[in-house]
Amino acid sequence: MPTLWQILTKTVPEEEKVVPVEDQHYNPLKAHIGNRVKIDTLECEELDFNIRSLQDSRRDIGGEIFRHADYVLIAKPFDGEDVKKKLRLVPLEDTDGEMTHSAVLLNLLDEFEYHKEFYEGLDFEQNQGEFQEGSFLGECTGHDHLHRPLHFTHGP
Fold first, then answer.
1. Does residue 129 come out as left (phi exceeding 0), alpha (psi in the -120 to 50 range) or beta?
2. For 46-98, how does the pLDDT look when each residue is reduced to its tens digit (9 = 90+)?
3. Residues sharing a CB contact under 8 Å with residue 119, sequence separation 6 or more, in sequence order
4. What are the boundaries of each domain within the chain?
5. Whole-model pTM?
6. Which DSSP category does 132 fall into?
7. Measured at the alpha carbon of residue 27, what is the angle toward residues 23 and 28, in degrees to the nearest 5?
8. What distance in Å separates the CA atoms of residue 135 and residue 155, rounded to the nearest whole number?
9. How many CB atoms neighbour CB 91 within 10 A?
10. Does residue 143 contact residue 111 with C-beta atoms inside 8 Å?
11. 69 within 8 A of 79, measured Cβ to Cβ
């Protein structure tokens, strides 16, 4: 760990240099944790978001690498609960212009603890990608609105 004097005089030995978290991940915005982010949509125009964390994902599918960066955002309005969003940036294959990434704003709709029956219900072989009306899905999560058919497109 470098001393304060080494940091101030910029004489930190290479092996002791600390790499910021933002530089350890795929970070196309070159943003830092705590940076302010303004989202210009009707729903979010009054909110000031800060970057809470950075997550990157890298998938190797058939020898081709797919990656994206997720910026976890949080806004703390004066008159309500915290608003959480996730900004996902996915690199475009054809960058013939200024646009280099597609941006997707994600919302957390629901979350619940691990539930074995729910996990087993996601098995494509068992349900062919469809949950029927009144299925176990709502029972697992405690949300009645999930008692409707859900269709999945994954599987063979």
1. left
2. 899 999 999 888 888 888 888 899 999 999 988 888 889 999 999 888 767 77
3. none
4. 26-107, 116-151
5. 0.63
6. P
7. 135
8. 20
9. 14
10. no
11. no
